[in-house]
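User: Um, any thoughts?
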Amino acid sequence: TQANISIQAGIEKLYTFGESIAANDAVYIEDSAADIVLIDSNSDAGVDRVISGATGTNEMAAQSFTESAVLRIHKIKLSLKETLTTTDNIQCGIQGDNAGVPDGTYIQSATIAASTVTASYTDITFTLGAVVTTVASTKYWIVLQRSGPRDTTNFINWAQHASGSSYANGNAFVRDSGVWSAAGGSSQDYTFEFDM
């Protein structure tokens, strides 16, 4: 691991993890990992993916992603909105892949009150319990689900791109009655961002 550390104004040195810093040096440590935006959460969000929960249509939703680089994911940002009034919680996290669908086990996740989601699409951040370090070129899933009983009147919507696939290395899926399938065909994506 390396970091850019400023020693004096206008002078920088690249330090390697474990390297000593001399006494009386003034240092500034900058986070070298910028936010990774795989899809802009506010672009082209023209389709609603309803999350009704429990057993039936629109139980859960998931977006796959595969990156050639190793990612260290700390936060997931989704564009969500609420229809009427939801009173349960929303869980979002990272799952592995099992034969092309989520494997059902969260590597890490976060839960928020559904009441924090507004009636208009807003970027909602889920801070994971611990950083998820991915394996390069391996498929993972962002999974979104509700905690309460099935409700087709009061529900959460995840923005889905109206013009089809905007992220080349993944697809939007929905689970209906326990079965995962591509949402709107094989070339659709939900909006999402990662903060590293």
User: Anything to note?
Assistant: Residues 1 and 18 are 9 Å apart (CA to CA). The chain has a mean pLDDT of 79.
